[in-house]
């Protein structure tokens, strides 16, 4: 597919791509730097790397993605294009099937890396834009450009107490911006390199395809002509039209039989090609298929390993985000046979992602609730301050209403009203210069006692508010929040006023402000570390995802604690301002009698209040900075989630490939089982044939015991009888074919999948059966030799018997001529001997048949036992399914 982004001049001419120059070296342009490459990808980043739409040609309905300038109905234009393509592709390199598969795998691997790099580049570009915006906010020149006057800046500095747009923050923001731009340039350079690497295998595949088509293209055939070399009517006149007319608009001739290879001859032995062609046609088994099943099972195993590792990391992230889930959350499925836990791992991965989404939603909801509560607190504080200022300024505006969208409006109103309070305090300080000494001392003591009461009441209200918050969380069945336990709960609300106690309280307030400042530094350090972790390579991002989630939760907890402490300080300040207003009214009634000796103490208290107000403003600004940093961290977390979703999609594709591999494996198993059943039937027939032959040998051996004869005469007769010799040769051929079939069955059985435990057991049983059959075959060969010897002995004894019968007949005739039967009716001696021989022979035959029947019953019982065992193995394995398919179906 066409690649987007920056392109060099090497691919400007598609017909000259990859062709060596005259000096033997490929033409290459110098590598551009990262900034130029990033600028080339600007449009693609803005469009989200969308694939451009292919051209559309409505004149070509069979191939609408062709160029609009192409007219497929013009035979001359099509003929010229075909000739040009054939001529250009005649020197293209052609690869083997293995090399083509390797090139396709390489293209697939590079394509996946390109897609992942594009996603990372898009996310990093968003980070860069955010860093640029932050740098603009910290830049003083941008403030002036935005229309802020020096007077307003000076007044703002007087309200907040110190300028947050210092050189350190400007330098830090500039460093973050430069780091983000450097990371974008590195990703753009990597994407450019990957796309450049992808062009080489793609061009090789395209040239291979064109070379194959050019090699198999036969060209136009001769068109039939009429008499006198005249063109027949109805045939077009252009070359391409004539060619397509004779080939039915096909530019390819059918491939002849000479291109096909008879694969059956590659698996025949040399001796069987000569004399046993008929047997081979019936019993030859084709070659085993290539080991695609093994490769597919390896893919499934690797996929399961990756899923198991990913599930373990996700569980660690979930436990770190919420330690309460550590004991109740299930562990990933344990490793078993290949393919059995694939679906379980995917289900576990889906549950883990849902759990992470729930945790993120819960944290977001808590943050929104905290912001809403803070906005309500600020709104109430603004109303109290406005109520304090109304006696002095009736034109004070109303505080902004609650919106639930942020604290900016409430904070701006708070800053303005703090400025008005500062003006009133300055006016009160100017009026306090003429106070009397004694009255000032009394007033100072009164003010300090009032401040003491304000501080005590503020602490008591803070305790009550935290107690109400705990009761609310208990009523909602929520766990207790450890952040509610702050150090300010240890004081006594009924402690009497003393100078030492008042000094201790003031020092405690200062310590609280210092602690908040230290927490701010810790948060800044953690945010800086988090940003440094974000700039690492993509290979370590998955391992750092859990740490980032944990740091985000810690930052959120610190942010909540900071907000609560700031609320406490604000509440105390509001009480102090209220008491101060009461004291100011009393001071006005005595302002004529006061002197300026105690004005220094009042100014000190006023300066302390001013410092408190400045500290609160600074903490509010730091709180806003922390919120901005948290939004950036949330965007980074969303990017990580997007990467996880892309990995899940790739794993789903691997699962589909594994399912296809499973189907192919089941088909191969069914074919093997069918072959095994056929071979078992042939083995049973062979066993029956062996039993029959053993019976005949036993009967022949019994017949030999009743006769006599010469062995040399019988051997001569066997040599002169070709029927018996032919039967022996046929039995030998049958035995050899059965042996070859058993060897082929053993080879096919051994090529099955080694991953299936039940198939391995069946294979072992089959090998034992084959070994037993080989032993039986060796015994049958020995029995064949013994049978030949017995046949020769039988023939010899048969000749002797015939000679004895002839002699006996002659003797009977002689005795009949010489002597008649006795008067007493006694039997003749010849008849008596013949009767005895017949009785002995019948007894011997009965014994022989009984022995043969006993041996046959034992063999049949052994064969039935083997058949029962084989049937039990088949039943345990299941009807034509492997353990992989059974486990996948059950899941």
Q: What would a concise description of this structure say?
A:
This protein is mainly α and 891 residues long.
Write the layout of secondary structure elements.
Layout: H1 34-40, H2 42-46, H3 75-88, H4 97-138, H5 140-145, H6 150-160, H7 167-216, H8 239-246, H9 272-275, H10 277-283, H11 292-321, H12 342-389, H13 408-431, H14 437-475, H15 499-534, H16 541-589, H17 599-704, H18 711-720, H19 722-750, H20 757-818, H21 829-877, H22 883-890
Describe the structure.
By secondary structure, the protein is mainly alpha-helical. Helices cover 72% and strands 0% of the residues. The protein has three domains: 9-223 and 234-242, no CATH class; 394-640, no CATH class; 705-890, no CATH class.
Instruction: Compute the average pLDDT.
Output: 69
The CA-CA distance between the termini, in Å, is 38 Å
* Number of helical stretches of at least 4 residues: 22
* Shape call: elongated
Q: How many structural domains does the protein architecture include?
A: 3
Output the radius of gyration: 51 Å
Please give the number of β-strands.
Answer: 0
- Beta fraction: under 5%
Query: What is the N-to-C order of secondary-structure elements (H for helix, E for strand)?
Result: HHHHHHHHHHHHHHHHHHHHHH
Summarize the biggest pleated sheet: none
GO cellular component, one term: cytoplasm
GO molecular function: DNA binding
Biased composition (Low complexity): 225-237, 882-891
Domain Up-regulated during septation protein: 78-216
